[in-house]
Specification:
Elements (H helix, E strand, L loop, with lengths): L13 H14 L4 H6 L5 H9 L7 H14 L3 H13 L4 H8 L7 H15 L6 H9 L4 H24 L12
Helix pairs in contact: 4-5, 4-7, 4-9, 7-8, 7-9
Length: about 180
């Protein structure tokens, strides 16, 4: 453990304080993972710009990726946060558990997405050609592939940040599989 303290609003730059204020309004609180990013003058804004950029993927599809990759990376913070967010986006608890395992038997297209996402992260981008072919056969495009890789990168950032800093999880705890 690195004994990394989550900075408070008064401990971050004025730029990050403004972002904290916006997060408070939008989310109701500043998640610890975002507050931790604010230790850097630029990381929080850069990350949020990246996370909020336009994508060919819908929010629900991004959650499929977030759950599959966070489970693979064993990030308790992101599993807890994205379990809650996936529920708010219409996934049932049993579907969330399955998505965390990298599958979605309840939806062929999401199944291909979950398997591809996990495969990309597990193999550090050396994607299995059979998994990629199944992704395309399920109706996904090359544009979607690029956006999936971006999303894998985005969730990996927060996975690694939490795994390194071990800041407290401020979402309801996701149960272990």
């Amino acid at each position: 453990m690195t004994n990394f303290n989550v900075p408070t609003r008064k401990e971050v730059s004025s730029t990050n304080q403004a972002i904290f204020d916006n997060l408070e309004k939008a989310v109701g609180f500043v998640p610890n993972i975002y507050a931790t990013m604010a230790t850097s003058e630029h990381a929080l804004k850069n990350f949020l710009d990246f996370a909020n950029a336009k994508s060919s993927l819908k929010t629900k599809e991004k959650e499929v990726i977030n759950l599959a990759v966070s489970e693979l990376n064993q990030c308790q913070y992101c599993l807890s946060a994205h379990t809650a967010i996936a529920g708010m986006n219409g996934f049932a608890p049993e579907q969330i558990i399955e998505l965390r395992s990298g599958a979605a038997s309840f939806d062929e297209k999401l199944d291909a997405l979950a398997k591809l996402s996990r495969n990309i992260a597990e193999n550090r981008g050396a994607t299995n050609s059979t998994v990629l072919e199944a992704f395309y056969n399920a109706g996904w495009t090359k544009e979607n592939l690029v956006d999936v890789i971006n999303q894998v990168g985005e969730i990996t950032i927060t996975n690694y940040l939490h795994r390194t800093t071990e800041v407290p999880v401020d979402f309801p705890a996701a149960k272990a599989l």
